[in-house]
Amino acid sequence: MEPFLLCERRKKPRPRTVWLGHPEKREQRYPRNVINNQKYNFFTFLPGVLFNQFKYFFNLYFLLLACSQFVVEMRLGALYTYWVPLGFVLAVTVIREAAEEIRCYMRDKEVNSQIYSKLTARGGLSFSTARGSVPSCNQRVPADMIFLRTSEKNGSCFLRTDQLDGETDWKLRLPVSCTQRLPTASDLLQIRSYVYAEEPNIDIHNFVGTFTREDSDPPVNESLSIENTLWASTVIASGTVVGVVLYTGRELRSVMNTSNPRSKIGLFDLEVNCLTKILFGALVVVSLVMVALQHFAGRWYLQIIRFLLLFSNIIPISLRVNLDMGKIVYSWVIRRDSKIPGTVVRSSTIPEQLGRISYLLTDKTVTSPAFWTLTQNEMVFKRLHLGTVAYGLDSMDEVQSHIFSIYTQVKTHPLLPKNGQTSTHVKSSRVHEAVKAIALCHNVTPVYESNGVTDQAEAERHYEDSCRVYQASSPDEVALVQWTESVGLTLVGRDQSSVQLRSPGGHILNFTILQIFPFTYESKRMGIIVRDESTGEITFYMKGADVVMAGIVQYNDWLEEECGNMAREGLRVLVVAKKSLTEEQYQDFEARYVQAKLSVHDRSLKVATVIESLEMEMELLCLTGVEDQLQTDVRPTLETLRNAGIKVWMLTGDKLETATCTAKNAHLVTRTQDIHIFRLVTNRGEAHLELNAFRRKHDCALVISGDSLEVCLKYYEYEFMELACQCPAVVCCRCAPTQKAQIVRLLQERTGKLTCAVGDGGNDVSMIQEADCGVGVEGKEGKQASLAADFSITQFKHLGRLLMVHGRNSYKRSAALSQFVIHRSLCISTMQAVFSSVFYFASVPLYQGFLIIGYSTIYTMFPVFSLVLDKDVKSEVAMLYPELYKDLLKGRPLSYKTFLIWVLISIYQGSIIMYGALLLFESEFVHIVAISFTSLILTELLMVALTIQTWHWLMIVAELLSLSCYIASLVFLHEFIGECSFLHTDVYFIATLSFLWKVTVITLVSCLPLYVLKYLRRRFSPPSYSKLTS
């Protein structure tokens, strides 16, 4: 019955009731609460790997070829000549995939083994996953839970949610009030209560549920919303919390917003697969021609099959082996690069993708304070503007002196300045009012911690500066409060109902919090009403974005201009205002406000209307400018990417203003480019009008919100993507994780270009897995993106070298390697075709047994594979001239043109070698095999030398080693090689002068013209990189 229920629940998630302390009453089974980034499990590994290998034409062809040798009429040689190479290819692939799966399993095991406390009737127990969890400060929430209790005195806690939704702002969460009032956490198990929750869904911003306590009189029934939730992948930023688990495993909000990992096949591999199909077509044509020239005599259909097997070398099985081993070498080189320390290659199958990226999609920020995607999330207060005067970093001491003068004029009462009317006093008063407003209008809470000298209780009692840290839902709010501390007005205490400030003289200023109006994305402002305990004055302070505050403050002629100036400097601008209220005004407002909050219908609208009645003719105090510090070398890295022809899109869960400021700060948008902010649209008509307005803009960066993006993609997907792809840069803010993956998918479908997604949090996993190449930035807190990515880096600036140097080298090396392996096989196939044509189109192999295997292994393998060490320019030059990367975006290193050139070279050399052997050795026919094979080996070694652009000492070793192996086999292994070998015929013939000069002539005729052509091309039509290396 349970499997049936499990299958039913998978099809249709249902609401649930969770009893506190009574797991036996649960109505449904919970999925296992584990993270799984593996592509296979124990049972699907081998079938899955083999399927992924044989679903492509290349490997399927060789499987059928090897199987055909079990039929006697089709057998052309020993079975090992077909099965050993195929088995080696499959073994390399299986071992590589197994190693990656084991590494992935170990990483997942590390995350899944984290220990949490579970609340039971016997006390706290430790479990790796728990039904009733007690996460503590800086610990990740293990499952989706309802917040029941906290150790914080103010009865709330902060969450860091950037791993879930990408927002850097901390979120305030409130426990269920009924359970928070209980004396101890163990009392949760003594009451009779339950939580009713909605069915699992992907919405991370909303939740509907109820909490019911049945054993109280009367029964308690509280509504639950998003404020009472603790979603998995968030981090507790303050205190210890107790929660009851609602959803686990695949039902987690974070998991439902993440796509399943997929096996990525690189574009380069698909192109090689396409070339093998062309070669197969050539193979069929050659075989049909041979049979046709025999006039389809006898059992012609068997002759066709024999010719297909005879010319099977046209499609080289060693190509797959060389490319796979090359990928391993590229991965090893990336990991060993000292200039990008900590870089990890988690998927060694797609390093060539790094060399052809056209679109880079990046998140804005990351959890850890040490490593970020673009920003460090470290805010610095840069500007205070009062209208007539502005203060920058170099003049903050003036602000400090003004604050000091205000609080020292009247020593008997620090709050009351002297009634002077001098200009200095007026300026000091204005500065003081602005600083006080900034120090009061926020949601920052000072927290005191033990520093080893002073314990926590003593530090909190004496407001020790060295023990104080600030907690807030936004880092720019912390920056503002830290700045007020630096100029003399320090926030030293706060709870739900009061705020304490300390003046420069050490006096404590007490304020009662009457009302708080938190910041929302819709309102773009926050407000607070406080009462000064010493004077009884009631003041309404408000701060917000200039677009909304312009209509709230009194008329002025400087707000718009100065906001524009500060925004152009890349600063986050906030407008600060105040309004003094009488006791009667406040009492009237409170009555209307309470009544509006009790309304059942249109509660939000009624509450907003009451608040707006206060937001009129407010006194403009100041503008503040805060800068989000970028990670090291972000600007040069983005500039390098732009010069390389890569378009950068920033996808973030942050607010529109934050994302826009970051884009300007990072120079994602150049100073000469305009920014078009796509206004909020909700229907088809609005989207049509806004798209038409955007169409008229040229060379303009686009900034759009996730809601508007969803509407545009619903009605005008093709038109929107066409316009967006023409933009030099695109910023998508308030993006849900699934939207990020959708954008990546649309870019791939609409443009056909390769995409690279860079992220750092759990909310970026879908995007990273969907992109052609996923890069995770690993921080101290967040490893989800890093674990799910193909490549993991520690800093954003490392991305430049990863693409410009390693990506470029990997692609060019694999292109050269693949074409040379094809050339090697086409040469011997051309010789076989000439041989069969001369001998009346007989299906007799020219070389058999050991020679066929030795040709593509010990005799030529090392020099050919040494091409993975080749490079056209030094890494410093590749970084200095990113335009070199742009040449690769057209796919010229491996194209139909270059493929055709190598085919013609192969036909020419194969024909010259074979016809030369027949012409020069007409009277010594038994030695044709020996002469042609020796010339073939020497030609391949010389062609490798012709292809190499920068010599490495290992290349020289490979050339000499291969030549030595061939000479040694001539001398010592002639009997072992067998009767099919030319060595068995006359081992002394190869030492004659006649043999040597004729082999030399054939080799020179096959290679010398190509050397001449290469010299002429470099002389009269040099490639772009040659100008930089000369």
Automatic annotation (TrEMBL):
Residues spanning the membrane: 79-99, 270-294, 300-319, 821-841, 847-869, 899-919, 925-946, 953-977, 989-1013
Residue stretches in coiled coil: none
EC number: 7.6.2.1
Pfam families: Hydrolase, PhoLip_ATPase_C, PhoLip_ATPase_N
GO biological process terms, semicolon-separated: endocytosis; phospholipid translocation; retrograde vesicle-mediated transport, Golgi to endoplasmic reticulum
Protein name, as recorded: Phospholipid-transporting ATPase
Cofactors (names): Mg(2+)
Binding positions for ATP per the UniProt entry: D363, K364, T365, E477, F519, K543, R572, T652, G653, D654, R734, K740, N763, D764
Major location (coarse): membrane
P-type ATPase C-terminal domain location: 787-1022
Gene Ontology CC annotation, any one: plasma membrane
Family that this chain belongs to: Belongs to the cation transport ATPase (P-type) (TC 3.A.3) family. Type IV subfamily.
Top-rank lineage group of the source organism: Eukaryota
Ligand binding (Mg(2+)): D363, T365, D760, D764
Statement: the UniProt record of this protein carries the keyword Mitochondrion: no
Membrane topology of this protein: Multi-pass membrane protein
Location of the protein in the cell: Membrane
One function term, GO molecular function aspect: magnesium ion binding
